[in-house]
Amino acid sequence: MTYFLVALGSALLFLSGCSPSQTAEYINPEEVSYEIQEETDITDREAVEEAVQVIENNIAYAEAEDMDGYLSTIVSSAHENTRTELEAFFELYDLEHTILSITVLEQEEDTMLIEVFQQTVAVDQAEEADDYRDHLGVANHTLVLEDGEWKISETVMTDNFFIED
After folding, report:
1. Is residue 26 in a domain?
2. What's the confidence (pLDDT) of residue 21?
3. Residue 113 belongs to what H/E stretch?
4. Where would one find the signal peptide in this protein (predicted)?
5. Dist. CA 103–CA 6, nearest whole Å
6. Containing domain of residue 142, as a range?
7. pTM for this one?
8. DSSP character for 78?
9. Does residue 136 fall inside a structural domain?
10. Percent of the chain, pLDDT > 70?
11. CA-CA distance, 29 to 91, in Å (whole number)?
12. pLDDT score of 85
């Protein structure tokens, strides 16, 4: 079940430009900076920083279309399905991802819930691909410890704000 949720979350993260929602304006990535915010008491700052680094790496690997790197950031049970879904997606779209904010919503010893507000825009797409809708979105990442390392086990998109042309 976990591999399905990560694969589904990954697809939603990339394909979320396909559902109706509110609108927003493009944010220049060069003008963005953020600090880790918290809505819960952080009991282990080092663990939070490690988990946030996993999310940052995940997004960077997605942008670079580095499949092995991307898979290294998610739970192993999700590798096979995620690889299948993303290989096709990477053939169709080149996306730019910009993290706008990160908020720790929950922290436990072996699990965390981290909210990422990010902008995703298409840099290029295959001629046969459906038009990608650039957007700002809220992704809630659940991370778990797997063999002593933080891995994304689920991503749930909660809001999309489509960028007006």
Report:
1. no
2. 53
3. strand 111-125
4. 1-24
5. 20
6. 2-16+33-163
7. 0.85
8. G
9. yes
10. 87
11. 24
12. 95
Q: Which residues does 88 contact at the CB level (< 8 Å), separation at least 6?
A: none
Q: What is the CATH number of the domain that holds 77?
A: 3.10.450.50
Q: 7: exposed, middle or buried (C-beta count within 10 Å: 0-12, 13-18, 19+)? A: buried
The values of phi and psi at residue 146, to 5°, are -130, 115
Whole-number Å distance between alpha carbons of 140 and 118: 11
Task: Provide the domain count of the chain.
Answer: 1
Q: Does 25 reside within a domain?
A: no
User: What does residue 20 show for φ and ψ, rounded to 5 degrees?
Assistant: -70, 150
User: Is 38:46 a contact under the CB 8 Å cutoff?
Assistant: no
Query: Is 27 inside any structural domain?
Result: no
37-93 pLDDT, tens digit per residue, is 999 889 999 999 999 999 999 999 999 999 999 999 999 999 999 999 999 999 999
Query: Order of strands, edge to edge, in the sheet holding 135-146?
Result: 22-24, 149-163, 135-146, 111-125, 93-107, 36-38
Q: Which amino acid is at 121?
A: V
Report the amino acid identity of residue 132: Y
In sequence order, what are the residues at sequence separation of 6 or more whose Cβ sits closer than 8 angstroms to the Cβ of residue 100?
Answer: 27, 32, 34, 117, 118, 119, 136
